[in-house]
Amino acid sequence: MLKIIKNFKYVLPISSIKRISYREEINLLRALSVLSVVVYHANLNILNAGYLGVDIFFVISGYLISNIIISELNENSFSFKNFYLRRIKRIIPALLSTLVFTLPFSFIYLSPINFIDYTKSLVSSLFFYSNIFFNNLDFYNSVDAKLMPLLHTWSLAVEEQFYILFPLLVVFIFKVNKNRVLGAILFIFLVSFLLNQTISNEKFYLTQYRTWELLVGVIAGFVPRINVKKMYLNVPYFIILFSMYFFDDAWILDIEPKLIVTSSTFLIIVLKQTEYNTFRISDNDLIKNIGKASYSIYLFHQPVFVFYRWHLKNNKLDDIFSFYIDSLILIIFVLVISFLNYRYIEKYFMKAKEKKLNLLIPVVSSIIIFSYISFQSNGFFTQRYNMPEKVILYSDSDNYAIKQNGNFCHHSKSNSSKDICVFNEEIENKDVYIFGDSHAKLISSDIAQRIKDKKIIMVTGDSCIFLSKTIVPDCARKDKEKLIGYEDQIKNSIVIYIANVWDKLDKGLDLETNIPITINNFLANNNKVIVVYQIPHFRFDILDNYYFNVTNFGDSIVVENNSYLQSENTQRSNKIYDGITSKNLFRVYPDRIFCRDIIPGFCVAAEGKNIYYEDSNHLSIEGSRLVVDKIIEILKTN
Q1: Is the four-CA dihedral 293, 298, 303, 304 of positive or negative sign?
Q2: CATH: 3.40.50.740, 3.40.50.300, 3.30.70.3420, 3.40.50.1110. Which one for 391-636?
Q3: Distances (CA, A) of 433 to 256, 451, 567, 637
Q4: What distance in Å separates the CA atoms of residue 72 and residue 84, rounded to the nearest whole number?
Q5: Global pTM value
Q6: What are the pLDDT digits (tens) for 477-534?
């Protein structure tokens, strides 16, 4: 190692840090970063961990921003006003042009409920809290992430939040004792890094989990340029590319690939480049321009890919997006509009005088007003569709979910009451406990509203299939750890068990064993158990059929029942419950309701003006009532 590294001094004194000039390798890193993200989102299956390009961006941003702040502090020329003004010129205009670009396409392609989510993300992107918005978004009940036009702005929000807080910290410490700046940075780096050792999905979006990556770039600014043998200069690039090839989505929350890529980026920054370079690709004009326009490319690529997917989805076309020709055309289109945005928007405002920023005020105001009207009009529902308002109301099950003390009783990621909801608490009849996941949301709400002669206890939550002595990882209940062993407390009661078994088959929960164990544990305590079998699944979103004119309101939506009844998942799900025998076990069969009784031979999602589903597998309040009717019949005799 000592032979590789020559004349290395550990760190630079903060007073010696000067403003850097254009660095060719930084621009090459930008090009590499944005191209990896674009290729990843284009589904080319070449760089399965192309998302690591964002981590490279974080390191670069930390390096450049800290250099600006510290060098200006050393020159006694730092001004918060000038710093944030430069950030506004650099970031806001290109972002606004992207947001405006997405408006008409979102209006055309998105259904009302998705359009409402889009306008919420529009506002969150505008004010740089989209990482918080997407972190709190209930993805379990939302559209696929690949169909969200502004999902990628979460990383921009992380950077902006860092840009707001970091200068305040550095300037304060610099004024008190500038020699303490690096120590404070290292401490915060360590705290943020250690936070990533927790098991939490939040560490993908939230700034406190990403700060260490930005600080890798900051720390690089304190390291003197290192001379190494020429043959080692390109090793970090190969490590980055190999990491993007080797890792995949299964590693997206893990720190190992991030650590490898950020460390390699750190090395590229601190290694002293020579005229030697294996490929000299950084001299290529296209690569140079991609690096310079990388911000615009990043902004535009996601919405372009997303709207193409919506085009395929809405027109019921085969998903040909994975084919190289379609991806290539889209990538070329992204590059063209991004170069135009860079030349005529980014560069113009970066050089513009302060008063030119007033041109942005009408654009910002228009976006805010447009978003407000969208919220108030349920995604411009009545203007876009000729159908009853119940169609849009059904797309948000919260409109019918029961509350207690102002909180939803059914737990989701975006809302979660602190206590288990109990209704008719004064009744001394047999208690009725409802355990279930998202399929239980409206069924349990309807039960609680219709049953007045029994105490109702709701223990439901998105993805919260209840299993004895088991914590279900994706369960949205914040009290899921406290529910371990909860079934042991329930005796001489009635238990209603509802689960989307399909959702958890082959997810490592061994449902064939654990569901029977759970139900038998309830039965062993002299409880009566009502099992609600699997809710039939459709292969398409029912409400989207109305929104995209596949079906007119009033027409029935049906499929031949064999497609559901004979599927492997249906048979596996039914077999789990069929194998449990007890005189105190009662069964409700939703497939008999929706795939036999309404229209023989067909599974029915909508019959005339009755809409039974809110998407492909969750029942609407109308569909839930048909299931609850069967449950009430059993409750009346027990």
Answers
A1: positive
A2: 3.40.50.1110
A3: 43, 12, 31, 16
A4: 14
A5: 0.85
A6: 888 888 898 989 999 999 999 999 988 888 888 999 999 999 999 999 999 999 999 9
